[in-house]
Amino acid sequence: xxxxxxxxxxxxxxxxxxxKSLLSSFQFNSILITLxxxxxxxxxxxxxxGTVYHICLGTYSIRKILVQLLGLQKRLTxxxxxxxxxxxxxxxxxxxxxxxxxxxxxLIWNVRNCNTEISSxxxxxxxxxxILAIFSTLPTAIVFSSHxxxxxxxxxxxxxxxxxxxxxxxxxxxxxxxxxxRDQVRDRYGILNHEHLLGxxxxxxxxxxxxxxxxxxxxxxxxGFNFKFMPIGAGCDYRNYEFMRSLYIYDLLxxxxxxxEVSDILPYYSAFDLFVxxxxxxxxxxxxxxxxSCSCVCISTDVGDARQYIWDSNxxxxxxxxxxxxxxxxxxxxxxxxxxxxxxxxxxxxRNHIKERxxxxxxxxxxxxLFTEI
Length: 374
Prior knowledge:
By secondary structure, the chain is of the alpha/beta class. The chain is built from 14 helices and twelve strands. The chain folds into two domains: 2-169 and 360-373, Glycogen Phosphorylase B (Rossmann fold); 179-357, Glycogen Phosphorylase B (Rossmann fold). Helix 7 crosses helix 12. The chain starts with a strand and ends with a helix.
């Protein structure tokens, strides 16, 4: 079976990593079309099954794109089973290709975003998603990464008889607590074992709302709490003037452990005593799933499907609310001295819930059924 995937680029972000995981899970031949020219490093490796044929349209004019696509159609010895698109611009291109070249095959859109406001996705994104809403009855199915994403798109007019929610899931056999990882990370950055270490994962971006996180930590410093915190992500480093200025404004320079972007996030989750997701907007936050799978105590803002992952409302706070976030963190600090509470919270309340409902293999099986049965 041959599948055609269209994605914006192969940059190392959540959707791209998920697509690689998908291609690694099934014995399907895949044609991968990208809109922007990037090094296809995410799709190279022994873990991929089947044949992956990559076409980049980033340097072509509209006429050359049509020539490429029509040529691809002629070269195919087997009609593709489905045309699968990832993210809004790819959904638009996929719609165009479907109407011009592949009208007789299945079209499946993948929606990974939750916030459809112009302030979040920009003017072009805003116009794109409104155009897609008009044609949303044409795909064979629309897959949303979260219930929140489905609801937000239904509100702007998405209508389809097969609107399915398939969360990204997490590989719990990989993402699990490890004492060696904890010691390695803490030794590397000089963090004592008894020190509280707070962690967060997310690029420096207004939607990630580091400002609220920093304000809440500043309130805790004023109350005399002793801790270190480690914000991990692109832009969270010494080269980012706004990042460093924010730390100075909130008097957190002696509390922060500057790491920046890391290639392997796995060891850091074991080093954290508390993971905080402080975003203004999310759909299905991968980092929160991974942290819970690693038995981290987690606090999250009430965005996307966070309530699906964290069922205890005491660990969910409204977004953009530094006072309430500070109170939630304070509550964890105080209760961490209660061994029964801390053990139960880390081992039972988080990881077991994720294994039961969001194991990556279960999510992949949903995609397999979608590709083969719809």
